[in-house]
Design a protein that fits this description.
It is a single chain. This protein is α/β, with parallel strands linked by helices. The protein has a single domain (about 1-210), classed as P-loop containing nucleotide triphosphate hydrolases (Rossmann fold, 3-Layer(aba) Sandwich), CATH 3.40.50. Helices cover about 60% and strands about 10% of the residues. It contains 10 helices and 5 strands. The protein has helices at about 15-25, 40-50, 60-85, 95-105, 110-120, 135-150, 155, 165-180, 195-205, 205-215, and strands spanning about 1-5, 30-35, 90, 130-135, 185-190. A 5-stranded parallel sheet has the order 2-3-1-4-5, with helices on both faces. Helix 1 (about 15-25) crosses helix 9 and helix 4 (about 95-105) packs across helix 8 (about 165-180). The radius of gyration is 17 Å and the shape is globular. Bound molecules: thymidine-5'-phosphate.
Length: about 220
């Protein structure tokens, strides 16, 4: 069972992914929480490179291939072995981030990105993708205040420093892509508070969770 969380900056996916893993573990599921970029040893180095303000001159192509390298290693070293061991894997970002950011955001053809993604993931696709949706203005404000609190502005600020228009394109891109892949997307309103959003996720995942528990027993 492979679940991914997606959304723009400040949508709260890391918090919600953390709550979902706790929820599943309390119900006896063996579950692994991971993220992109940075879900493997190599990925940790790539994350630093990709998000650092020092690399504002990174070309769009170099950016794309670094995300794909991170994903290929992540799938190979962590996702496939965990799924093979029967664990639930939850990833904070996956293939759809490349479609939204490098595709709708940077303007690279999404059909071409889909092919590159397919090569990087060796056929592994999420069973369920939870898209936390909210207006870009709200997300960016949340992300900026989080970064200031954690002093992350310099080390992880490269995308937050992009224009509001860029983030609006990404939000729209996610919604468009979700409409084209309805079978695996769950779109959740992420403007409310943490508990309301989490209840909305688990409430709407009921069928999916029931199936997952049936498989085990
Ligand atoms: P986050 O994990 O803190 O959300 O930051 C990851 C950043 O990297 C975020 O701004 C989105 C961006 N990103 C891409 O542009 N393409 C990708 O394929 C992935 C996984 C992330």
């Amino acid at each position: 069972m492979f679940i991914t969380f997606e959304g723009i900056e400040g949508c709260g996916k890391s918090t919600q992914a953390g709550l979902l893993i706790k929820f599943l573990r309390e119900r006896g599921k063996e579950a692994v929480l991971t993220r992109e970029p940075g879900g493997s040893r190599l990925g940790l180095d790539l994350r630093r490179i990709l998000l650092s303000m020092e690399n504002q001159d990174l070309s769009e192509e170099a950016e794309l291939f670094l995300y794909l390298a991170d994903r290929a290693q992540h799938v190979h070293s962590l996702i496939i072995p965990s799924l093979m061991a029967g664990k639930v894997v939850i990833s904070d970002r996956f293939t759809d981030s490349t479609i939204a950011y490098q595709g709708y955001g940077r303007g690279i053809d999404t059909g071409f990105l889909d092919q590159l993604n397919n090569m990087a993931v060796k056929g592994i696709l999420p069973d369920l993708t939870i898209l936390l949706d909210l207006p870009a203005e709200i997300g960016l404000k949340r992300a900026q205040s989080r970064n200031t609190q954690k002093n992350l502005t310099v080390s992880e600020g490269r995308f937050e420093s992009e224009s509001l228009e860029f983030h609006q394109k990404i939000r729209q891109g996610y919604l468009d892509w979700a409409a084209r892949n309805k079978y695996r997307f769950l779109i959740v309103d992420a403007t409310g508070n943490i508990d309301t959003i989490f209840r909305s996720i688990t409430g709407r995942m009921e069928d999916f969770l029931a199936k997952s528990f049936e498989k085990k027993h």
